[in-house]
Amino acid sequence: MAESTFPGGSGPFGGFNSGRSPSMANVHEDEESDTITSPTNTASAAAAPGSPFANSSNFSFNASSGHSQPPSAFRPPGPDDQGFPNNYNMTRRTSVSAESLTPTHHQDSNWKAPYHQKTEDQLSRLRASVSSNFLFSHLDDDSANLVLGALVEKPIPAKDIKVITQGDAGDYFYVVERGAFDIYVNPAGHVTPGPDGMGQKVNTIGPGGSFGELALMYNAPRAATVVSTEKESTLWSLDRVTFRRILMDSAFQRRRMYESFLEEVPLLSTLTLYERSKIADALDTQKFLPGATIIREGDPGEAFFILESGEAEVYKSDSGDTVVKRYKKGDYFGELALLDDKPRAASVVAAKHGGEVKVAYLGKQGFQRLLGPVEGIMRRNDYSGGGGEGSAPATT
Amino acid sequence: MATAKFKSHFHAPHGHKLFRTNSSNLANDKPIDEEQKQKEKNFIACFECNGPPLSPSQIAENPRSKEVGVASKQLRVGDFELIKTIGTGTFARVWLSRLAGSPKEGQKVFALKILRKVDIIRLKQVEHIKNERNTLSAVAGHPFITTMITSFSDRDCLYMLLDYCPGGEVFTYLRRARRFDEDTSRFYGAEIVLILEFLHDMKGIAYRDLKPENILLDSEGHLKLVDFGFAKEISNRHGTAVDWWAFGILIYEFLVGQPPFWNQNPMKIYELIIEGKVKYPQWMSSNARDLIGSLCTVNPSQRLGNISSGGVNGTALVKSHPFFETIDWDALYHRRIKSPIIPKVKHAADASNFDNYDPPSESQSGYSKDMAQKYDHEFKDF
User: Fold this and answer.
1) Which end of chain B lies in a sparser environment, N or C, as judged by fewer CB atoms within 10 Å?
2) pLDDT exceeding 70 applies to what percent of chain A?
3) Which residues of A touch B206 (CB under 8 A)?
């Protein structure tokens, strides 16, 4: 197997903008993504789906033995059996799905993520516990805080309590704060009657560990049984609907915010609602520490920016250290870059005495890929450029 | 009483209790109109789905003017003989079936999909099932989508009568062949493109479950997309990008024999997907690599199928990709191109291209009166 050698130099992902990692949020930003097709086969007893513990090797290619061989014309020449991972499950994959959620509409924007009080100390430990989990590591700060706030304390008052049971429906994810839990897997895929019904012990999870994260994605049968081993333990739990609702809601709110920002940009005033939401979806975010340069005078202009939070200052080389303009939330700058390749006329810097600055941005190429050349869009109602750009005249 | 009469024709091979006892009607049901019922049975018996296809715009125009895909209030499961299970899902079972009470020789056969209300509710899939019926009704008539001839319901179950595709699942052919050659992959890939174009651009529907398991072959070896349980009407084409991602994965699986991102642990698969690095075997052509790489682009705003260029819209860009250069799209839509796989079908009711499935297990919990009161209005479209 060879890595992609893509014609034209850049790999198939070469154009990918690293300003925002291909975040998990992308999956959830689509308010309609309530389906995830599982690549595993829940019908296969040995392949405990979702199990970080399952290590059974089930190379069961011959799903339908007893059949006559098919006509071979559509079969490519060459060795047949190369390149399959030896644990690749060749049987049918079931489709899995979570419940349908609809995004918050403005009529019922009263939904608020549940909040459960935690000490600073608890919060920082929880943050550390989940930071390595990729479902959480890709969240932006706001969503991450909402998710941490929504965790519910669940005291486990005794030894030998089954927190989750293999084969049951899974709706909760757990983080261990205190105590230890043993993990058992029964190769049957569920707990069976008898003394060893839970199967074999495969692992122990202690403070800072977590389990059941697949339940945050969809309702899959639990892949293992988890049992408390100490007299007193403490877990924090989170259910799927709350988790997905938080992500969906914040993505939805953010998209609406972007759309309302975009409405204010004269250059884009002829966009249809659909085009605007398409652009809103494609915006990337980037953060700047106080004093950091967002765009530099004289550089080629390649993207336009909307200030999402914080404050930015505009400097021009012929004005020295004087701030010639200030941008605040909702202001935009650099949009002429969509139109031509002229160098930036000024520098925009995150305000030195403010907090972190967050901008949403879109490159010229990204814009054109979605909507075609800006010139065509402008021609729709003869936007003349008005001699400047930015929320107020002519700076950048 | 009519139901009793048809009950006697009803044949449940495994003595499944549920199916033996449920010829009772819906709680709010009107008496059966025998004349209307006979008309519907005649329509079903004469229904021919492999004729010359309507154009996509004709199909999309007005589903109500079409005769197919309309819910029946007269039909009962007892009107059908259930011959053999040809597929199972989490809460559905698909039976090869034929109209009961007529000679077996030369009788048309169908696929009857039976869904248990109690399971639908337990698994929180009410919305998905409603979507499935209404989507299938809206798209009935497309040459590469399974045709729902009619739907009906009784106290415990929902039923969808579908055309039978004797070729079985593409999945089975793919696993047996390990991988398809490029021409076969191109042919079936192109038929999928026509399906997605129709669903996205004409109907505003995202399919959301594209995989070889959901693609069947008809008697001539052309595709029929089945299982619209996750299909969803979407606003503003927002959400069709998922199908183009899945299409890239599908082409890869056709050519290589396995999907590009795989691990026993689903969470690991998600990490691989987010990383987005597709590995191509050395023998794969550059056109195939380019197509897959452009489709399997993590950022949807850069994904082929979802982007436009020079005034050419998403699907048209896919169709003009060099990988599909040799495809005559019009001839393909009108089924004039010979399929690379011709299924072996001995007779109309031949189910040998399908795997054998275990008989249905006895139902553990029934659909109670309380549940019926609470949920039956959700199923009124059937």
Assistant:
1) N
2) 71
3) 32
Chain A residue closest to B353 (CA)? A67
In this model, does residue A15 exceed pLDDT 70?
no
Per CB-CB distance under 8 Å, the chain A contacts of B299 are 16-17, 22, 26
Per residue, the 3-state secondary structure of chain B, as one string, reads CHHHHHHHHCCCCCCCHHHHHCCCCCCCCCCCCHHHHHHHHHHHHHCCCCCCCCCHHHHHHCHHHCCCCEECCCCCHHHEEEEEEEEECCCEEEEEEEECCCCCCCCCEEEEEEEEHHHHHHCCCHHHHHHHHHHHHHHCCCCCECCEEEEEECCCEEEEEEECCCCEEHHHHHHHHCCCCHHHHHHHHHHHHHHHHHHHHHCCEECCCCCHHHEEECCCCCEEECCCCCCEECCCCCCCHHHHHHHHHHHHHHHHCCCCCCCCCHHHHHHHHHHCCCEECCCCCHHHHHHHHHHCCCCHHHCCCCCCECCECHHHHHHCCHHHCCCCHHHHHCCCCCCCCCCCCCCCCCCCCCCCCCCCCCCCCCCCHHHHHHHHHHHCCC
ipTM above 0.95, yes or no: no
pLDDT at residue A86, as a whole number: 55
Q: Tell me the pTM.
A: 0.77
pLDDT tens column, B48-57: 765 667 788 7
